[in-house]
């Protein structure tokens, strides 16, 4: 079972992202379960969404406490919530930012245990990509394109299908174009990371 | 004392662009040191002379009816501009940016606190105000505050008032408050009982025209054509149906209670004055406060005050006062605007316009016309447009000389 | 049709397939998505003919449903928590009048302290009202149970409540095989009321009954619930024939063969429990589960039979009777009267506290080893409790408990968990 935790702020579409991811996995023929962090947060408050993906029926209802991957929609959360809590040592983080990883001060945030070579951090300027393609600063669909490239848990086709089912014609097309560009850019980065020496 | 976050206060207040909310207390600026106990100056129609500049100031000068506190005679200043204000609803709460309810509650309760010398208890219904102000263990309230349930607030307030009476503490006053849902819908039975018994409670309704706390569903205060989650913009007549809804101020007046007033967060002086007036009176009092909700209305947070002003200036939300069932004062429209100007910036009315050309002519002109009719009817009923040239705020006399209670309008 | 869909949406679309004629509800989290979706289906004409009424309170919502049902319309509503309690007088009334209203209950804790998260206190509060109460384990079952609920309600002339865990199910997006209109139409005949307000044949519904017959009327209501014990499995097996999958019924045993310790529970926590049981079985521990679908009527005989071979029983409950202990456990213990099988009550998941497999396993292992107390509160933070007890013994005016406890905890309750 692959478990994802998505971080963002109320209004950014965290819940939609979790839903799209689960629908994409469904289109890939797998079982999936998406659910929000249930609360009464208002616009701007930190929000978490979860998605489990599996080859068989998913029965558990407990929250995801040890995710395999994190998707961070809002980089301002980096220093505000315990973002990396429970992330598996061989997990990865897909971060929406236009800044290089080195500038983010992550060394201090990730504990030494997690600082090992296992955790991969991939950055993607998803908001910029979203603005360029859709005219709106909504990074969720774009990040899913990047997520499809990282680890290959879902296919890009399935992500596109999920976007198509959720949004209307032109909006869907623009988001798919953005997700596809994200996919390409992350694919390249992911290969580099995959081949990087691991000690 | 509850814990308080120490950031710069509600964003709504800072963004409002309204008097009293722009200037943090004690931040200097002309006139900031002048306290409200200073002798009042003259109050003519053009506004008082600024103590620092000595120039006559026109209220109307920025076209928004807003005027900076420091230009004002001290007696015109808001309670908020007083460094000794209570901050009944303090900073650090979790309302959305530009929340009209947060702004309204802060002004109303601080004014009530000043009027009662700080001797006050508030009872709050379930709703946004309750949820965003008390994320346990934090509380934004600096006053004794009780939340019981969604539908029983007026009765709980009656209970508090009764206890204070029996305990020989009549100087402690009681304010009950709820959203429009807690007031006009689920709480209406208890509210009507509280009115009818003339219990010594000021009840404030923060009207954002829907159930915001649960995700924007229709209430009996939702206006026609507005989209909510239970009146979606689909089908033949998208949005909330015409011909429904409850005019609570008029219903309150029908109970013949001593004081009923309406106000908006666009005119905070007027709001404070009405709260102060209400606190001079004993018995059941009702204040219906119009508070835009950026989230529920699909509006920009910066437009909260503008929308509140437009609601009044279109005639859709009549601002008036009534005593014992008779209208005693009406805030007249200063510069009448067509309802379209109010509807267009709001996502809940998006279906009335053309998505491909949102600035173009309405896609549903007939619906816009029917909403304009509601405004026109209100204008006629309440005499909202006075003789040319009279633009003094809140100074118009009763518009219905016969003193009859006003009929229920379709607007609310 | 297989869909990846939110639980609320799956229920809304399924309810629409059941062709309710009057839908009336009042919004409350976590039920809102259900009624919003049904509302749209009515507005767009996808569900027609149907009247969707936005009312001013839950009391009105249930009352409108009563009126509609008495006038011969198929009536549906949904609520949760405070809403269920606000309508409680009408809830009893619907059952007393024998009106086949169907209601979704999106289970949520009951305040104060106000809490929007899941537990079963709301359902337990109306346990004795005379409604049939069915608990869904998954969103698939939640959807399916609604089809069965209309069928049961109308054939028995009793109201049926389908309980589904708030947020955990209502807001979860997962795979659901949605029924088709043809399937539902073939399974659910049009509503043929036993009693109806009709000028052609006037009847008085709701007459007063004095001491001379009240007990008999109540006994008859009980008999109808006893009838339901036969009707529920019958409808479930007919459902399986029509739809090719099984859901509903009175209860469902899982891996109970040779189980020394059997866990009993209601609702979605059964999924986590089954995973835990599988893991324990892999490690050679003889554990099984019995999931109860029909809480009212309570299938005492079936429970007794399912637990006959167990040496101990652990009941996991998301509610409890304050001042006593378990609610479901009391029923289970009654069903086991005379068997001597010890019953442990595990109170868990109150107000949305996550129930983890790890904690469950620890608890089941303790029970299997005979180490469990009769009443266990899962993952109770003892230090918080001790601090509050200390505080209240130290001084009189301690202030509000909820606020004190959370301040001790040093967290913000509404923050993401
Ligand atoms: C008996 C009951 N029914 C429903 C609810 C759910 N509920 C809580 S607040 C609310 C709506 C509040 O709307 P309003 O009074 O207008 O206040 P707002 O949030 O808009 O400020 C609802 C439906 C509840 N708490 N109790
Ligand atoms: S939803 Fe509306 S009323 Fe509620 S906090 Fe946000 S702006 Fe205020
Ligand atoms: Mg409201």
Protein described:
- The complex is a heterotrimer of chains A (199), B (412) and C (417).
- With 199 residues, chain A is an alpha/beta fold.
- Chain A has one domain: 3-Layer(aba) Sandwich (Pyruvate-ferredoxin Oxidoreductase, domain 3).
- Chain A has helices at residues 14-27, 106-109, 126-134, 140-149, 156-166, 169-195; strands at residues 2-9, 31-36, 46-54, 69-72, 92-96, 120-124.
- Chain B is of the alpha/beta class and 412 residues long.
- Chain B has two domains: 9-77, no CATH class; 100-395, Thiamin diphosphate (ThDP)-binding fold, Pyr/PP domains (Rossmann fold, 3-Layer(aba) Sandwich).
- In chain B, 28% of the residues lie in helices and 10% in strands.
- Chain B has helices spanning 11-15, 100-116, 128-133, 153-166, 180-185, 188-196, 248-253, 268-280, 294-297, 304-314, 339-343, 365-382, and strands at residues 120-124, 145-147, 173-179, 202-207, 259-264, 285-290, 320-323, 326-330.
- In chain B, strands 2-1-3-4-6-5-7-8 form an eight-stranded mixed beta sheet, with helices on both faces.
- The two termini of chain B are 39 Å apart.
- Chain C has three domains: 2-243, 3-Layer(aba) Sandwich (Rossmann fold); 251-377, 3-Layer(aba) Sandwich (Rossmann fold); 382-417, no CATH class.
- The two termini of chain C are 34 Å apart.
- Mean pLDDT of chain C is 95; it is low at 412-417.
- The structure holds thiamine diphosphate (TPP), iron/sulfur cluster and magnesium ion.
What's the SSE blueprint?
The complex is a heterotrimer of chains A (199), B (412) and C (417).
Chain A: E1 2-9, H1 14-27, E2 31-36, E3 46-54, E4 69-72, E5 92-96, H2 106-109, E6 120-124, H3 126-134, H4 140-149, H5 156-166, H6 169-195
Parallel strand pairs in A: 1-4, 4-5, 5-6
Antiparallel strand pairs in A: 1-3, 2-3
Chain B: H1 11-15, H2 100-116, E1 120-124, H3 128-133, E2 145-147, H4 153-166, E3 173-179, H5 180-185, H6 188-196, E4 202-207, H7 248-253, E5 259-264, H8 268-280, E6 285-290, H9 294-297, H10 304-314, E7 320-323, E8 326-330, H11 339-343, H12 365-382
Parallel strand pairs in B: 1-2, 1-3, 3-4, 4-6, 5-6
Antiparallel strand pairs in B: 5-7, 7-8
Helix pairs in contact in B: 2-8, 4-6
Chain C: E1 2-6, H1 7-17, E2 22-25, H2 32-43, E3 51-54, H3 58-70, E4 75-79, H4 81-86, H5 88-97, E5 102-107, H6 121-125, E6 132-135, H7 139-156, E7 160-165, E8 173-177, H8 181-187, H9 214-243, E9 251-254, E10 261-266, H10 269-282, E11 287-292, E12 294-296, H11 300-306, E13 312-317, H12 328-335, E14 343-347, H13 357-368, E15 375-377, H14 382-394, H15 401-409
Helix pairs in contact in C: 1-2, 1-7, 3-5, 7-9, 10-13, 11-12, 14-15
The complex binds thiamine diphosphate (TPP), iron/sulfur cluster and magnesium ion.
